[in-house]
Amino acid sequence: MTSMTVNGRPVRFRMDPDTPLLWALRDAANLTGTKYGCGEGDCGACMVHVDGEALRSCLITIAEAEGRYITTIEGLSRDRSHPVQQAMVAEQAIQCGFCTPGIVMAAAALLDKNPAPSEAEIKAAIPNLCRCGVYPRLVRAVERAGRVKRRRERISAAPSPGISAEDAAREVPAISAPGNPDN
């Protein structure tokens, strides 16, 4: 059994230790905000924080995540009030939305380390692919979120509709792979 902390709560996965973290989060923990894009670490749709660092969850196994602190998009902020989430909405940097969770996680990790990044630093820290091409608005959104973090600006955008963040980030007890008799 593999144990870690996901969105501030202890979780034990009864799955093959070589299972990518992406699939444990999506299929077993029902945290579907983390998206499957390419499965090879190229697109960044599956980006999560592992001990505060933005990592592609398709490239890390649950064995490698043992004992670590994982934050998914559902756990970034319970009410979707994180500055990056708010700035992405305010700057209209969301098109289809598929890549958005991974971009938000990469941007949030960047701003935790550097709340005033340059355009070049933003582009280097957010390697995510966006088929809709929101890149200019994305840079503006990250710059704006940095200003919010530094308390130089406020954003009053409303949280997105849909499933409540609290429901999405609920505590999940020990989880087995589908079809496992230990369920």
From TrEMBL:
Region (Disordered): 151-183
Signal peptide: none
Gene3D superfamilies in the record: 3.10.20.30, [2Fe-2S]-binding domain
Coiled-coil intervals: none
UniProt cross-references to InterPro entries, sorted A to Z: 2Fe-2S-bd (IPR002888), 2Fe-2S-bd_dom_sf (IPR036884), 2Fe-2S_ferredoxin-like_sf (IPR036010), 2Fe-2S_ferredoxin-type (IPR001041), 2Fe2S_fd_BS (IPR006058), Beta-grasp_dom_sf (IPR012675), Diverse_Oxidoreductases (IPR051452)
Domain 2Fe-2S ferredoxin-type as annotated: residue spans: 1-76
Keywords of the record: 2Fe-2S, Iron, Iron-sulfur, Metal-binding, Oxidoreductase
Matching Pfam families: Fer2, Fer2_2
Superkingdom per UniProt: Bacteria
Gene Ontology molecular functions: 2 iron, 2 sulfur cluster binding; metal ion binding; oxidoreductase activity
CDD domains cross-referenced by the UniProt entry: fer2 (cd00207)
The keyword Membrane appears for this protein: no
Name recorded for this polypeptide: (2Fe-2S)-binding protein
